[in-house]
Design a protein that fits this description.
- The protein is an alpha+beta fold.
- The chain has a single domain, classed as Multidrug-efflux Transporter Regulator, Chain: A, Domain 2 (Orthogonal Bundle), CATH 1.10.1660.
- Helices cover 57% and strands 13% of the residues.
- The protein has a 3-stranded antiparallel β-sheet.
- It is globular.
- This is Helix-turn-helix domain-containing protein.
- It comes from Rhodoferax ferrireducens.
Length: 83
């Protein structure tokens, strides 16, 4: 394997469940989901059905480091979804 190849186990390590996101951010699950719905927090990277949702940990960390900056940087993404 070369340095660019990522195993499936490594890929899963970069994903976070809602419970983990809420523990890290300090917000409730309901509030986190409302932030996502409003485009003020990262959308899930993976969704299988209604009970399995995961966020990229890098997206959550980026949002946590600068929420307002993240919102400004992703404003065009939110407007495209709303249209």
């Amino acid at each position: 394997m070369n340095g660019k190849t990522q195993t499936s186990a490594e890929a899963w390590q970069g994903l976070m469940a809602a419970k983990e996101v809420c523990q890290l951010t300090g917000v409730s699950r309901a509030h986190w989901h409302s932030l996502v719905k409003e485009g003020r927090a990262p959308a899930p990277a993976l969704r299988w059905g209604t009970r399995f949702t995961r966020w990229k940990s890098s997206d959550v960390q980026g949002w946590l480091a600068d929420p307002q900056g993240w919102i400004a940087a992703h404003a065009s993404d939110t407007q495209e979804v709303a249209a």
